[in-house]
């Protein structure tokens, strides 16, 4: 009986050991993709990344990215209506004084902001007023361009100011070329096919910590960060991270276009890339475009959406915005 008890005890220990090993392997296999470490040394960014088992067997990746010292984009700042109005009318008064030196112009702030005109030759007043209206529109457009903003109307008929996504992506893609090339090496280098490249870019962007970036009043778009800012600050919200992914993709695969898909309080990306069976797509230009969720924190694979994203898209509550400059990029499409 003693010997039997000994065998049972050892057998039980062995079974327990096998169970613990199996449980450990299950936990490791189920470990979500995530950013394990981030360190910034000037313009050099250091990462340790845990990919899912489907990529590189889940082996931890350590790599560095170098940002260029110079940038044309600067820092994106939220639109401040009062400050913008002061700048606009200051420029307008200066331009009017140069264009019509014989006339006098005076800024009125009540009951609303306007410019009063006093012209010795009253016959020119209609002409001056017409010029002033056109100049105000021109100066406003210049101010928006300087701020990397554009006027937009969404699918629900609401107008407002949004980041100039096409221009930001176009300029960022060239500036972040070295970053895209470094990430391409994770995917296997030049021989990697477009889907493999996208998988690694998507994983990298998803694992950047999510941050809502909302202002105190919660105005949409107020917290947007440029792609370079997302990398430097190691944080971003839905449209910031989607634009970063689109910028990196533009550099590596300029022949495969993307579009920003906007749903209530969220944004994701569609790519003109063939989808595998079971992957979510959106019909654009009479073709199915592959949908991806760059936001995270869940590292959703290609063609898999969050429940809210799927619901809004299935019910038609979305709009799409171009990610490359066109003559009509101020209007959304469906």
Automatic annotation (TrEMBL):
This is Transglutaminase domain-containing protein. The lineage of its organism: Bacteria, Pseudomonadati, Pseudomonadota, Gammaproteobacteria, Aeromonadales.
């Amino acid at each position: 009986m003693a010997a039997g008890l000994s065998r049972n005890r050892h057998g039980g220990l062995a079974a327990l050991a096998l169970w613990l090993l199996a449980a450990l392997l299950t936990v490791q296999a189920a470990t979500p993709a995530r950013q394990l470490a981030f360190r910034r040394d000037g313009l050099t960014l250091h990462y340790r990344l845990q990919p899912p088992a489907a990529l590189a067997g889940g082996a931890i990746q350590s790599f560095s990215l170098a940002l260029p010292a110079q940038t044309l984009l600067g820092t994106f700042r939220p639109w401040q209506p009062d400050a913008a109005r002061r700048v606009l009318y200051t420029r307008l008064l200066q331009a009017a004084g140069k264009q019509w030196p014989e006339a006098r112009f005076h800024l009125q702030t009540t009951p609303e902001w306007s410019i009063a005109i006093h012209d010795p030759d009253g016959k020119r007043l209609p002409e001056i007023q017409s010029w002033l209206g056109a100049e105000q529109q021109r100066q406003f457009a210049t101010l928006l361009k300087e701020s990397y903003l554009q006027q937009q109307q969404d699918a629900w008929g609401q107008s407002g100011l949004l980041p100039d996504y096409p221009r930001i992506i176009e300029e960022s893609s060239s500036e972040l070329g070295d970053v895209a090339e470094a990430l391409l090496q994770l995917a296997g280098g030049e021989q990697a096919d477009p889907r493999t490249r996208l998988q690694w870019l998507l994983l990298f962007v998803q694992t950047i910590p999510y941050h809502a970036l909302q202002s105190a009043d919660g105005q949409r778009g107020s917290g947007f960060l440029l792609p370079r800012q997302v990398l430097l600050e190691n944080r971003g919200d839905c449209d910031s991270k989607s634009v970063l992914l689109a910028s990196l993709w533009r550099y590596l695969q300029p022949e495969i276009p993307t579009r920003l898909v906007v749903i209530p309080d969220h944004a994701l990306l569609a790519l003109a890339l063939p989808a595998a069976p079971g992957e979510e797509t959106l019909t654009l230009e009479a073709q199915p475009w592959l949908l991806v969720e760059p936001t995270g924190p869940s590292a959703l694979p290609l063609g898999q959406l969050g429940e809210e994203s799927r619901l809004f898209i299935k019910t038609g509550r979305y709009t799409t915005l171009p990610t490359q400059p066109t003559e009509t990029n101020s209007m959304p499409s469906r």
